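Lab notebook, bench 4. The sequencing result for the construct came back, and we need a structural model before the next group meeting so we can plan mutations. Quick request posted to the team channel:

Model the 3D structure of this chain.
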Amino acid sequence: PQLVGHPLGILERRGGQIGKKKSSRLNETGNLYTKTEKRTSFDTAILISASNMLINLLRPDESIAWPMRVPRALWELIIMASARLATNSKQSPAAYLMLAFLTGSTAIFDLFFWAPTFAFLAQFETCQYEGFFRRRKVSCEKTDFSKGYGRLFVSLQCLSVGIFYLMTAIVAWGAFVSVREEQKVDRAVRIRQKWEDLQKVRGSRSHDSNNFLH
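Done. Here's the predicted structure in token form:
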């Protein structure tokens, strides 16, 4: 009998070839957004995250103390661990989803908060002021390149890393969607196989009953 309205109709729309494939096909799932058939790798994201962490830790800026740099370094370590997990995992949707969330949220903060903030705080001299409501410049020290060019560099760094993390989040989300689609198809294949086996068992029992009556 035909399964009218059954979810297995998705198999017919894909040419009926999916039923011949096993669940091991999930280990070679591609990416719907990048149009690739190979498993998505995030090794580049690991390298960029490690470089970003080292630059933030070693960048000379006396106004930003060491303890203030530790949280971002730990966050970069979490991103690296998530990217490694997504690269080496057996196509786990949770790994891709977590990486998409981490890189996406980081990209939003870098692009819309840190990049404009460091660009606004860039200054090439350190001045002292007096007064509260009407601040008056008292004296200025010599040119401070770490607060000038250094912070402009950090602003460009946040802008470039933010764009890269945004693309990484999109790629991770595409891998997540691809794996979910393949899991749905694989589940439908197993259901169809069980249905066919059940029909064979019923047909065999019906044939044995007819032979017994005759």
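Confidence is low (pLDDT under 50) at residues 1-27.
Will bring this to the meeting.
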